[in-house]
Amino acid sequence: MPAPRPVQAKDGDVLVLVGTMKGAFLFRSNGARARWDVSGPHFPGHAVYAMAFDGRAGRKRLWASTTSMHWGSVLRTSDDFGATWTNPEQANVKFPADTGLALANIWQIRPGPAQEPNVLWCGVEPASLFESRDGGETWELVRGLHDHPDRPRWEPGGGGLCLHTILPDPANRERMLVAISTGGVYRTEDGGRTWRSRNLGVRADFLPDKHPEFGQCVHKVGVNPKRPGTLFLQNHWGLYRSDDFGDHWFDIANGVPSDFGFPMVVHPHDPDVAYIVPLESDAFRATPEGRLRVYRTRDGGASWEALTNGLPQEQAYETVLRDGMAADTLDPAGIYFGTRSGKLYGSADGGASWARLADGLPPVTCVKTAIVGDPRKARVPRPATAKRAKPAEKATRKAAPKAKVKAKAKGKAPVKPRRKAAARPKRAKRK
Amino acid sequence: MGIRILLPAYLRPYAGERPEVELEASPATVGGALEALRRIHPGVLDRVLTERGEVRPHVNVFVGSESIRHTGGLATPLAEGSEVSIVPAVSGG
Predict the structure, then answer these.
(1) Nearest in space to A169 (alpha carbons), one of A276, A247, A61
(2) Is the peptide bond before A88 cis (omega within 30 degrees of 0)?
(3) Which domains does chain A have, with CATH numbers?
(4) Were A12 and a residue from A109, A353, A378, B71 both cysteine, which residue would form a disulfide, CB within 3.0 to 4.6 Å?
């Protein structure tokens, strides 16, 4: 197969990085996000579960984890938007021999804070965290988490025992939160030396004890760096918010057709706005009623509205995986998601309207975004010239809670008891 | 006469594009031959063995026409002049 053409990106352009089960694809547009160039497949035949863009210290570096069913996993980079990629001779992420573990996959790549441009983390399967302090040249196992006494009791979900979420606190270098399926949420306050589970209030419906200290199957946690204490969590059954960086979680499944799903994306500018894609159940992991609906909250989870303009509402039994959704940082924000059926959708207006950007891709495993160079150079159309979007569909009334929900947009915990989502089908195997 | 190790196309970039490597020594076992190969071309072995030193689940190693899964795994003995083939399994989706 000939090498794919790279994308021709310049400052202010938007990149959407799409990992699939059989390679990676790069989508590029300008700030209007109306027309997209596509490049790929990169790494044909390799599963790409994690991608990232590192724009720190003048870099314009793409990262990808590539996993061959036969030959294992490595991290690769490109500094020319996919024209060339590194291919390390020796695997760059390895478990030390004394652990007795073997790397199965790399699920997350997370560049560190801007003030530490050589720090990166990656989350892997079996569930562990690796850190690099030299820009990704070498990686070291974070022993504090690996040696945690809970580890022997973590169980693999349907996707494997993976560490899939890495959320450093932008206000506190020593503090970080990670999420593991199934282990739950863990937090360090001392730069990774010690970790404590932080799952108070999160259910584990698949265990005899529904509220264990750890063992929850957390699917994804999202945060807006402008209010790092506020977290949104999509659980294996359950939607939650925390206002204290994970010390306590409360249910926010208010008016959604199902509280089962995988991705959780928080708006880049408004910490009260988040996006999910509910699925019918763990037994039938598809969009309910054959309608592809993104749900958005604009009040911290007190209510959710269905976003459907431009999305198929018939015979659309889609699945969006935990890293299959992302937001860009322009204003208005772009929201993107890919499906297991190989479709990529995008919205240039925060979800008010959607367009299908691609069809026929391999199953999408991850979607990430980047603004190349200086985001002030992005040419975002003014609202007057932007396409008028239909108003969002209101949440289904019959699924809405009977109890009144007090506004909690400013991070206050709700006063009502937790309510159940709409009638749930029987539980099945967790993932 | 040493041991010949035949490489699939995917692994050749990690062995100077060679389709096969001939070991000067004659290791007694398949595991010994692969360790000798690691010293010459470490990138090949990272892709054939896990960190635990096990053959990856979807990789097959043959001595002649016999899979080592049926002959003792990495402890499979080698005779002088043996031919070891590394072959990706017919798995995928």
Answers:
(1) A247
(2) no
(3) 15-399 (2.130.10.10)
(4) A378
Model confidence, pTM: 0.90
To the nearest whole Å, the CA of A98 is away from the closest chain B CA by 9
Minimum-distance CB partner of B10 among A71, A88, A95: A71
Distance between CA atoms of A119 and A134, rounded to whole angstroms? 7
DSSP state of A183: B
**Residue numbers in B near A71 (CB within 8 A):** 10-11, 47-48, 56, 59, 88
User: Do residues B18 and B9 lie in contact, with contact meaning Cβ atoms separated by under 8 Å?
Assistant: no
Query: Which residues are registered as beta bridge partners of A221?
Result: A233
Say if residues A162 and A180 touch (Cβ distance below 8 Å): yes
Quickly tell me which residue has 């069809």 as its tokens: A359
pLDDT along chain B (93 residues), means of 10: 93 96 92 96 96 95 95 95 94 67
User: Can you tell me the ipTM of this complex?
Assistant: 0.89
Q: Which of A68, A69, A89 sits opposite B42 (nearest CB)?
A: A89
Give CATH for domain B3-88: 3.10.20.30
Which of A22, A71, A98 has the highest number of chain B CBs within 10 A, making it the mutation to test binding with B?
A71
CA gyration radius, chain A: 20
How far is B53 from chain A, CA to nearest CA, in Å?
9
Q: How many other CB atoms are found less than 10 A from the CB of residue A391? A: 9
Find the closest chain B residue to A70 by CA distance.
B58
